[in-house]
Amino acid sequence: MGIVKGRSRAGLFIGFLFIVNVGFCVFAQESSNEERKIFVVHLGVRRHDDSEMVSESHQRMLESVFESAEAARESIVYNYHHGFSGFAARLTDSQAKQLSDRPDVFSVAPNRKVELQSTRIYDYLGLSPSFPSGVLHESNMGSDLVIGFLDSGVWPESPAYNDEGLGPIPKHWKGKCVAGEDFDPAKHCNKKLVGAKYFTDGFDENNSGISEEDFMSPRGYRGHGTMVSSIAASSFVPNVSYGGLAPGVMRGAAPKARIAMYKIVWDRALLMSSTATMVKAFDEAINDGVDVLSISLASAAPFRPIDSITGDLELGSFHAVMKGIPVIAGASNTGPEAYTVANVFPWMLTVAATNIDRTFYADMTFGNNITIIGQAQYTGKEVSAGLVYIEHYKTDTSSMLGKVVLTFVKEDWEMASALATTTINKAAGLIVARSGDYQSDIVYNQPFIYVDYEVGAKILRYIRSSSSPTIKISTGKTLVGRPIATQVCGFSSRGPNGLSPAILKPDIAAPGVTILGATSQAYPDSFGGYFLGTGTSYATPVVAGLVVLLKASHPDWSPAALKSAIMTTAWKTDPSGEPIFAEGEPRKLADPFDYGAGLVNAERAKDPGLVYDMNIDDYIHYFCATGYNDTSITIITGKPTKCSSPLPSILDLNYPAITIPDLEEEVTVTRTVTNVGPVDSVYRAVVEPPRGVEIVVEPETLVFCSNTKKLGFKVRVSSSHKSNTGFFFGSFTWTDGTRNVTIPLSVRTRVLNP
Fold first, then answer.
1. Which ranges in 357-435 belong to alpha helices (H)?
2. Does the annotation count 392 as an active-site position?
3. How far apart are CA 564 and CA 433, in angstroms?
4. Based on C-alpha coordinates, what's the Rg of the chain?
5. Measured between alpha carbons, how far is residue 676 from residues 285, 326, 673 in Å?
């Protein structure tokens, strides 16, 4: 059941990788016949500076639907009273309905689940600490900022949290570490790990389903939280590898940034959280003083109505952004199908995942002394065995025992099936020949090797030419650099944006395949406290750490300005100038629905020249354009609002992209840019129009000076297509000859009926 206020339109919301139950106020009506469930009640901007007064107002509101003050007080799960006003409470459906009917309530929503989206990265992206200058050094590696994570906890003994060489904890930090099972703040927190809290009240009264292996404390068993925090902000840790793979120095994007962990994800049947718990963590993080938030979570509700903003991840992140805290979130892992992208609201910075120029392989030496390499994340010892070809691996299992098996598959999903079959039948290893360009993201302790059909055919010819074919497989090795092509991963969720098609999502792409990071030493897949992780979960902290560096360099920039700088300076090729592809069937060149504005480029982002900034009035524009009523907008923003008539166009939201999902007649789109570069600057327009689309920019030149820091412009868009089309893509750039401020253009033509 969902009780939603704010918009009249209905639709579907796509489910994503991480499961979290989200909410702002949670109610339960006192009734002997009705079941109580956790609801999250969102009341918008708080009306008092005193948090205790805010909590008391929640109590009074609940008393209106309970028979006694005591029952109302006992129903409360969480009070949200720092960054915004709301609560989570155990309510009946009828009590929730009563509350939702009140004019001072923005939304009432049932507690839901959210899921986790699960070292070469920064050298690949051009951020080397050996360079004498650059954003890494200019920002002091993020030393004065705190990055917060809403995730699964930390393994505090990890060297990633070493605070050697760090100065005092930033003065603005008000957070703390909370004691719990096997977690002592005096022992486990330091000048690196400056905050660690955990939240369980958003589950049922008995915390049912939480694994006994997990810790009732900020300590995390699974290690996902340790992974993401180390990817963003690990200290320098030398001589790290995963069983010999990916060797080198591990470091985060912002190696001196401080880390605060808010444990909301628990080891249950799946790694899960609740929306009520997540909203409480947002509230605490805002009050504690985090500077950037990294959220590797997304809604798990597959058929969630989109008739209003009721998702607590979205609401919590909105309030954080209004407090000046950038929120970076993953696109989710349900690609490569279209319309699967998560975290699609315009105040979020949404991250897609690419690979990097590194792969893992093993040498295969055959009985004829020919050696061929194949892709393999193999950490075991060298294997020597007989070699056999099996066409029907599901049924022909008699000859597998002790042999390395060669088989051919047509679909990527068949590889897992083949591996399971050969493992059960105690084969010594498996070679899979497949047609696609799928890159394995799993590490194995037995030989599991990928080759293409051509190589598979060569191996098959050897098998058929020998009466007793044999093979020797080396342990896994690491290959860095060309010819590894950069591509958007098949699992990375794709646009268009299913909620607001005129808002481009994802926004940006970053490495998210076999990323080396620290993890829990208790986790079975850990190798000495390290792991190779794959998913938009791990691309997200890459960008979050880079945002820390940019914010340290430009403390006066808003979250929207930081996002614009990231997007308008992104690479459209890989760092070596080669094209970026999108993994799938068939593989194709990547477009904005695959990677947003492109591959993140922090060095360019530190000096973008111009930014597409947004403030509360721009977000009110968004709410009005998408059909929210005046009352709801006033509640969520705290600013009295009356939408214009006719409503403003969503195409005019000052977003660093122009996406027109249904171009019927010529339209004019407006944007405003703010000069953050040299005071006296002149920029001219350069357009690469989508095919069959005419773009006219007015004016064609922007002149900035000490008295002119912001300028608006118009973009007229028309189509020569005579029939309905799919999306075509182009770009629009303002250039001063040194800085290129580029945004994606995405246009789909819809021809009017005669």
1. 413-424
2. no
3. 43
4. 27
5. 29, 18, 9
pLDDT of residue 299: 57
Would you give the distance in Å from CA 11 to the centre of its chain?
Answer: 23
Q: What is the pLDDT of residues 386-439, one digit of tens each?
A: 999 998 888 888 889 999 999 998 776 677 778 888 888 889 999 998 876 555
The per-residue DSSP string of 660-712 comes to EEEE-S-EEEEEEEEE-S-SSEEEEEEEEPPTTEEEEEESSEEEEBTTB-EEE
- Token reading at 627: 């059909």
- List the catalytic residue out of 93, 123, 144, 151: 151
Q: For residue 389, give the 3-state DSSP assignment.
A: strand
Q: pLDDT digits over 199-246, tens only?
A: 886 555 545 556 677 899 999 988 899 999 999 999 999 888 888 888
Alpha-carbon distances of 191 from 126, 169, 188, 259, 748, rounded to whole Å:
28, 6, 10, 9, 51
Before 646, cis peptide (omega within 30)?
yes
Q: Under a CB-based contact definition with an 8 Å cutoff, are residues 382 and 475 in contact? A: yes
| Catalytic-residue membership of 537 | yes
248 in the Ramachandran plot: left (φ > 0), alpha (ψ -120 to 50) or beta?
left
- Contact call for residues 366 and 470 (beta carbons, < 8 A): yes
**In 3D, which of 126, 86, 133, 122 has the Cα closest to residue 106?**
86
The pair of three-digit structure tokens given for residue 264, joined into one six-digit string: 């909301």
Q: Which of 75, 118, 296, 537 is catalytic?
A: 537
Is 434 within 8 Å of 408 (Cβ atoms)?
A: yes
> Which residue matches tokens 């959280």?
273
Cis previous bond, 506, omega within 30: yes
- Angle (deg, nearest 10), helices 536-553 and 559-568: 110
The residues near 557 (Cβ < 8 Å, ≥ 6 apart) are 550, 551, 565, 611, 676
224 in catalytic set: yes
The tokens describing 175, both together, are 């957070």
Backbone angles phi, psi at 340, to 5 degrees: -105, -5
pLDDT at 12 over 50: no
Q: Which of 82, 224, 319, 554 is catalytic?
A: 224
